[in-house]
Amino acid sequence: RLFYDKDCPLDCLKGKTIVFIGYGNQGRAQALNLRDTFKSEQLEPTPKIVIANIKDSYSSKAEQDGFGFTSDWKAAAAEADVLFLLVPDQVQPQLFNELIAPTLQKTACIVVASGYNVFYKHLNMAKSNDVVMVAPRMIGTSVRTRYESGEGFPCFVSVEQDGTGKAWEVGLALSRGIGATKGGALWPTIIATFNEAYSTLKGLGCSDEALVHEMWMSKESAEIFEKAAEDGFVKQLVHHSSVSQYGQLKGSLEVDTTAIKKEFKRIAEERVLNGAFAKEFMSLDRDGPGVERTLEELYAKAKNSELARGEARVRERLGLK
Ligand code: NDP
Q1: Binning pLDDT at 50, 70 and 90, where does residue 184 land?
Q2: Whose CA is nearest to atom 40 of ligand 1?
Q3: Does 182 fall in a domain?
Q4: Is 24 within a domain?
Q5: Is residue 80 domain-shared with residue 119, that is, in the same domain?
Q6: Which residue's alpha carbon is at the smallest distance from atom 42 of ligand 1?
Q7: Claim: this prediction has a pTM higher than 0.90
């Protein structure tokens, strides 16, 4: 169901200590939003926010933002009533199991922004802990800018473990605090579809300029998705020309979706739900070349696709980076 500000009282957070493990993309945005909400809602006693991070550029940011920081994970965990686990997913199991779980209070609420490590049972938490997922469907910088502009952003919230019986209350209060209740295994297939569409249309004689602008660079598609979010996925079509409306409505019925369906099912069943993807990802650092090196190799391949090479040519011709 959908939750709005009015469904999510903040009272259960009064006087609590909220620890952020990680002050990166999500950690910084969520901590700043929470602090601002506590201030604007005049929540008393004001919850205390503690930032725990390794000493790096992110910890300097925490200091500049007026939070300060600690790298003493055990001490930070010991004082947490709520613990946001916002370090990269591949880092979470070791950091949590070795340096956080031993001192974490048995009734603390653990908050994740991705269900990954909880679903695959990589984190050893006590049965008495609450575990909630508050997962913004938004990159960190936009979690902050959309909070500042008052727009908010969508977010999945779920209770994975209700040790204290209060997990929903806390999860909803945190969702509101970070600004997610203001308004009310897809992407691999989308990337592959864009690549195929690009190559096919290029082969039929479309220029790089026409393709990159038609597909994303004009931002028309971004505008369409904005309208879809505001008006409805189908309803937004009324803003298009009649030819376009006819082409999209009729054409979408004619697409042979057999292969797409098969791919969605394969990714969901044979990669995600059976744990194969998680196993493969976790083994990269343990037995393989490491996440960083693997991402470099995958980026190199992606940059070599016809679509990426076409875009690079257009950007160079337009003098864009
Ligand atoms: P970041 O990559 O921004 O990293 C967060 C912090 O963790 C950084 O300060 C990073 O420092 C630190 N860190 C990295 N390695 C270690 C380590 N070995 N020990 C201790 N600290 C470490 O993370 P994100 O914010 O992108 O992701 C956090 C969570 O949010 C994940 O669960 C992710 O799935 C989820 N999420 C992320 C979204 C996003 O937009 N990025 C969207 C929705 C959910 P340094 O970089 O210096 O190593």
Answers
A1: very low
A2: 139
A3: no
A4: yes
A5: yes
A6: 139
A7: no
